[in-house]
């Protein structure tokens, strides 16, 4: 089967978001749905037990505190079964140039040695920031593949164009488009 062994793991915040107002579906959640539909692969949502407030400033304050203290917030859903997974398309927002700490909670908790990680970062102006470097440093046994950055505003305002760009990245990365 095409794309066998691939999982889309995503973290995404809904509520009030940068430049796009209050949104029901986070930018990364939409990107993850596009990816899982194009590749016909399962999704895992990286969601913390405590969640994050809708309010942008309050969410930013908590996110910054978690990052400054290098915390690993507890996740709500059981970790995915990685036995048959060799590639992870990891979708996350750029939070202060870094990944949300909840993403580290997941990656610290699963076997990453030998795992191919494809970083897909939603952002508003900083692109992938330090996230590829942080993934390489933190998980030296994983292969961090070329990442892809996409603006959250594009996903919210022109989903067709977002799908086109995501599809092109997946094709260039060697995935089979089946959906
Ligand atoms: C706490 C926080 C920090 C952020 N830091 C940055 C940043 O440093 N650079 C950037 O381009 N965007 C930053 N953003 C904007 C998000 O990366 C962007 O809105 C992203 O698309 C959100 O994806 P989501 O809706 O899936 O959570 C930040 C947003 C939040 C909430």
Would you spell out the secondary-structure blueprint of this structure?
Blueprint: E1 6-10, E2 15-17, E3 21-23, H1 27-39, E4 43-45, H2 56-68, E5 87-93, H3 101-109, E6 116-123, H4 131-138, E7 143-144, E8 148-151, H5 152-157, H6 159-172
Parallel strand pairs: 1-4, 1-5, 5-6, 6-7, 6-8
Antiparallel strand pairs: 2-3
Helix pairs in contact: 1-6
Structural descriptors:
binds flavin mononucleotide; six-stranded parallel β-sheet; alpha/beta; Rossmann fold; 179 residues
Radius of gyration: 15 Å
What can be said about the biggest beta sheet?
6 strands, parallel
User: What is the CATH superfamily classification?
Assistant: Flavodoxin domain
The proportion of strand residues reads 15-25%
Q: What is the name of the CATH class?
A: Alpha Beta
- CATH fold-level label: Rossmann fold
Name the hetero compounds present.
flavin mononucleotide
Averaged pLDDT, please? 95
Name given to the CATH architecture = 3-Layer(aba) Sandwich
The end-to-end distance, rounded to whole angstroms, is 13 Å
The total domain count is: 1
- Output the helix-strand order: EEEHEHEHEHEEHH
Shape: globular
User: Which secondary-structure class do the elements indicate?
Assistant: alpha/beta
Helix content: 25-40%
